[in-house]
Structure formats: structure tokens, C-alpha cells
Amino acid sequence: MHDLTTGATLRMDYDRQRMPFVWLFLAYGGWRGLYTAVLEPCANLPEDLREAVHRGQSARLDPGGEYTTEVSVTLGEAETQR
Asked: Which of 11, 14, 18, 30 could make an SS bond with 41 (beta carbons 3.0 to 4.6 A apart)?
């Protein structure tokens, strides 16, 4: 993501095979008076787990199973075009 007005960039890298969706969560002052925006890779869509399972759009973790993955976020400045 690039903000052309400020030159800021945000890059998020993660395993898109294991987490093919990204949630956007927004709080407008309702949590500790903070305004927040959260981008979160996830394995389910839609939010309702029963519907996600019905659509075949949900991960499954068996009892005793393990799910490990990595997410990296990089903040920086956009390269200027000449």
C-alpha cells in the first residue's frame, strides 16, 4: 500500500495459501478511546464460522494439531519517480 500524499508505504507478507483472506477491523474510539485500524491475514471468510465451513472457506485444526505461520510488516517511504 502506498500513500502518495505522504510517501509512506506498508507491506505485509504472509503465506497466502494458508491464509487467503485479510480482515479489516476498525474501532472508532470505542476501545479505550483509541481509533484503530487492523489488517489481519486469516483463513476464514466470511466471519461467521458456520457459514465459512459450509462454503469450504475455513481452515481446520484437529485436536492436538499445530498451526504455525509467519507474518511480516514493513513500513517505509515510497520511492519517488523521476
From this structure: 14
